[in-house]
Write a structure and sequence with these properties.
Chains A, B: This is tryptophan synthase. Chains A, B: Pfam families: PALP. Chains A, B: InterPro entries: Trp_synth_b-like, Trp_synth_beta/beta-like, TrpB-like_PALP, TrpB-like_PALP_sf. The structure is a homodimer. Chain A has two domains: about 5-20 and about 85-115 and about 245-450, 3-Layer(aba) Sandwich (Rossmann fold), CATH 3.40.50; about 120-230, Rossmann fold, CATH 3.40.50.1100. Chain A is about 40% helix and about 15% strand. Chain A is built from 18 helices and 15 strands. Chain A has a seven-stranded mixed β-sheet, with helices on both faces. In chain A, helix 15 (about 370-380) crosses helix 16 (about 390-405). The radius of gyration of chain A is 21 Å and the shape is globular.
Chain lengths: ~450, ~450
């Protein structure tokens, strides 16, 4: 097909939108390891999980066999409000780089939550409503997930209780106000509203909180209030399932114009975006139908895939959630202050970890200043102001395109542009003022953290 | 056509996008009055205007005869990066209101500037580049225009000097950082960098600036630097011309699905969005091809159409720009603090003023609290967090839809959703906290302002 026939933005028609999510675990030869109960360190049961999570979501979490799961009608209706998201051909970036590579990005930022998080938030809110719950609880750090969940709960008229890491609550008042606009109850964490919060405040009176602490408060709030469950925006297999809508749309859009990806790139924190983007492509590869090069990009300050160990670990620092086997830096690892808030997670989705362990995916870590350089370069030619998280993928996409310039190869590069940076201008300001720092943990720091990993004997 | 066949979002295909702008003045029987030179109060010449504005833009400003003007190829390429904007069917809002009315909105917020301003910014930057200029100067209040112009100048590698009203510069540091990301030079106004700025600072040492003052500085900077011109984001006829892309796309999208609008609603500050949205529809009406009800919505705190006088007035408080005949509250009128920053303008586009004077358009003023109530209601069902400016149109669209509910009429309502409110969360916070105030100027205040209008004798 002639290059000029491919539009700047490929939008699927409503009737071309996916009607089923794709569950990559069904096609994996080596399945992700079982989740463990944090109290017993033994495989967790469906019943145990159902005390914390919604029933239908627990089923999805444990489902390793069904490749396709129907997207309920009401979720598909909601998707139509902000999806399909465009697959954009980065003509201007290609021209600026002078590369023969064809660059595409799947842009998930055109909704008020500002990221792909809404894809799973609406699904989780739907199942909570179906179960007859009053509401859900969650934590949020950078704020994208909390915003997405607020929007989803508002749509289904569910109560939404968000524990927001106190320093974010104070530094990002605008994020908080967006959540309030959607009727969410936002509490700075740690708070006096939970036992665990009170305990942490008594021990560390001046603390500005952490994601681990906020998770612990949210889980306590879910399990001590009648009619509530806890929901999580990343890491879990159910989240990757819902996020597969990203990859399914991207694949359909490429197919529509007879294009085939060579390299697929995504930023990786807990893995929600990367897993969702690559799943259907990985499925083709697992079934022997196509071959791709997959690249996970993580911050050098929090390099779980590139420098972590593959072991059982707690998903949260509070140690209240199930354990999973994953690439981890240790649940006690505290990343240096890094503005790409959504990528500051010590572990990685169990599914992605297994794929990486099996050599089916590559990983790279990049430093923050180089990431913001790529972000600014991208913004100036493509118009979109990217989130710092998404910009990790931009960095590697540009690097790969420049390699093609050297070799003359016309590779097709697809990357996930997860969201916009409107609420991250403090970080951009630091970058403009030359005050951004790059920090890479030392081997000693990592070894000290690995030493504290739980001893699991199965 | 069956209601269910109309998708949530109508996107035109690239090849369906407008190739020409529409100039409504060509179809107007009564043309807008001529612009006047502020020094002589006599009709301004093309040559005089060319000292301030780019040559080609001056031609467009004075063109009352050509109905269609070609959109240059490079502008059309840029449009493809963020256009076509979707015409959205507000199914969820209709359901929530229980109205038989069909509600559509043309959403212009899916670009980094967050509003429709980019449509004219890219055109103005293009003509500046074509003229071989080094750069352009402008002022910005709320920041949308400054951001849009920064993006446009970055694309064409033009220097961009933005004078930002000092209180906005301080209260909206994130807007400033977005502009810096696109390489703009942002100066808080009044500043020491211009003679007029120095003078104002000497007279009012603690001033936090005003739009009028920022315009004066930007015009001085344009006329005293070699290779610079001044550009403006609203009010002017050239801006309405460029913004006609909004209405042309909306009309094409409705036509594509066999729909016909009955009521067309837009918020009105200087008139850039409203004029752009209604132009092609108004053209049909002026040519006797169709009939519509057009409603301009303005804030009760700054009611130029509903309570102003139709007279010659200065476009800026600094009295350096040409005068035009328009509905005005007087160039010295200072609106009460109102968070819908983009609508705090004392006058109105000359074209829209003439159409209003001829009875071809209605106008309504609405109070701020009612506007934010509509904004929040809209956000919760339609997902998009609207800008306060845009929410004026939402308020009246909801009012009209509720009237249909009473009468049972299935009218088709189309309104302009000009942008997103991500940088307006201070205002939302005030609303959530019940600290928002409604202020309406008294008749005495307006009469005192009218008394200071210039005496024009033509």
């Amino acid at each position: 097909m002639n290059k000029n026939e491919i539009p700047y933005k490929i939008y699927l028609k409503e009737e071309e939108m996916p009607k089923q999510w794709y569950n990559v675990r069904a096609d994996m030869k080596n399945k992700p390891a079982k989740l463990l109960n944090p109290a017993t360190l033994q495989p967790v049961t469906e019943e145990e999980l159902s005390n914390i999570f919604c029933k239908e979501l627990v089923k999805q979490e444990l489902d390793e066999t069904n490749p396709y799961i129907d997207i309920p009608e009401q979720i598909r209706e909601f998707y139509k409000m902000y999806r399909p998201s465009p697959l954009v051909r980065a003509y201007c970036l290609e021209k600026k780089l002078g590369t023969p590579a064809k660059i595409y990005y799947k842009f998930e930022g055109n909704n008020t939550s500002g990221s792909h998080k809404l894809n799973s938030a609406i699904a989780q809110a739907y199942y909570a409503k179906e179960q007859g719950l009053k509401g859900v609880t969650t934590e949020t750090g950078a704020g994208q997930w909390g915003t997405a969940l607020s929007m989803a709960c508002s749509y289904f008229d569910l109560d939404c209780q968000v524990y927001m890491v106190k320093c974010s609550y104070e530094q990002k008042p605008f994020r908080r106000e967006v959540m309030r606009t959607y009727g969410a109850n936002v509490t700075p964490s740690p708070s006096e509203s939970t036992e665990v919060g009170k305990k942490i405040l008594a021990e560390h009176p001046g603390t500005t909180g952490s994601l681990g602490c906020a998770i612990s408060e949210a889980v306590e709030a879910a399990t001590t209030q009648e009619g509530y469950r806890y929901v999580l925006g990343s890491v879990l297999s159910q989240v990757l399932l819902h996020q597969s809508v990203i990859g399914l749309e991207a694949l359909a859009a490429l197919d529509k114009y007879g294009q085939k990806a060579d390299i697929i790139i995504g930023c990786a924190g807990g893995g929600s975006n990367l897993g969702g983007l690559i799943s259907p492509f990985m499925g083709q590869q697992l079934r022997g139908e196509a071959e791709y090069k997959f690249i996970a990009v993580e911050p050098a300050s929090c390099p779980s895939l590139t420098r972590g160990v593959y072991a059982y670990d707690f998903c949260d620092t509070g140690k209240v959630c199930p354990l999973q086997k994953m690439y981890t830096l240790g649940s006690g690892f505290i990343p240096s202050p890094n503005h790409a808030g959504g990528l500051r997670y010590h572990g990685m989705s169990a599914t992605l970890s297994q794929l990486y362990a099996d050599g089916l995916m590559e990983a790279r870590s990049v430093e923050q200043t180089a990431v913001f350089e790529a972000a600014e370069q991208f913004a100036r030619v493509e118009g979109i102001l990217p989130a710092p998280e998404s910009s990790h993928a931009i960095r590697v996409a540009i690097d790969e395109a420049l390699k093609c310039k050297e070799t003359g190869e016309e590779k097709t590069i697809v990357f996930g542009l997860t969201g916009t940076g409107y609420f991250d201008m403090f970080a951009y300001e630091k970058f403009h003022d030359g005050k951004m720092s790059d920090y890479i943990p030392t081997d000693e720091e990592l070894q000290a953290s690995f030493a504290k990993l739980p001893k699991v004997d199965l």
